[in-house]
Design goal:
Length: about 180
């Protein structure tokens, strides 16, 4: 019950402290970054970005792998999901999905093992460790898919010999 009251108080406090101009927003983001750094020991370089959240007075903090929210002073931090109850939409999840999108066209295809089946009109990228059982299962499943171009990027992370195996694959005359 206490937690719910604190969260409700935070939302009310944050909602009543909306800011105006963009110069002020820049000062605010610097102030938030500084406050979080001094109060929580967060390295300022760990904060990838601070932007206004859809809720007035609330700021979205991007520490790299998640999204947290803060008021304009960095006095309060909310670690959780922001839900738009009218639209029945998880705004935090939507922002994470947007932030984690990659541009397929910008992948370094010259560093991939390319396999074309049929006309190859459908394209997909696969990131694979030579020691990954699930990667092998995916490769077997893809054998039954036609009209696809598969770009396999070797991603040796599971064990030290994954790197050695990846080098053997990459340097092989028949990758």
């Amino acid at each position: 019950m206490q937690t719910r009251i604190r969260i409700a108080a935070l939302v009310v406090a944050v909602a009543t402290s909306a800011l105006g101009c963009s110069a002020q927003a820049d000062q605010t983001t610097d102030k938030i970054k500084s406050a979080l750094q001094s109060r929580l020991g967060i390295d300022a370089s760990d904060i990838k970005g601070i932007t206004r959240a859809p809720l007035p007075g609330l700021y979205e903090i991007n520490p790299g792998t998640q999204i947290v929210y803060s008021d304009a002073n960095g006095d309060y931090v909310l670690n959780g999901e922001l839900i738009d109850t009218k639209a029945h939409r998880n705004l935090t999840e939507a922002r994470l999905n947007e932030r984690n999108k990659g541009d397929f066209a910008k992948l370094p295809f010259e560093n991939a093992v390319k396999v074309v089946k049929g006309d190859g009109k459908r394209k997909m990228a696969v990131f694979s460790d030579p020691n990954c059982t699930y990667c092998h299962q995916l490769e077997n499943t893809l054998k039954s898919v036609d009209n696809v171009t598969v770009y396999t990027f070797l991603y040796p992370v599971l064990s030290p010999d994954s790197t050695a195996k990846a080098k053997q694959i990459w340097c092989s005359s028949d990758r």
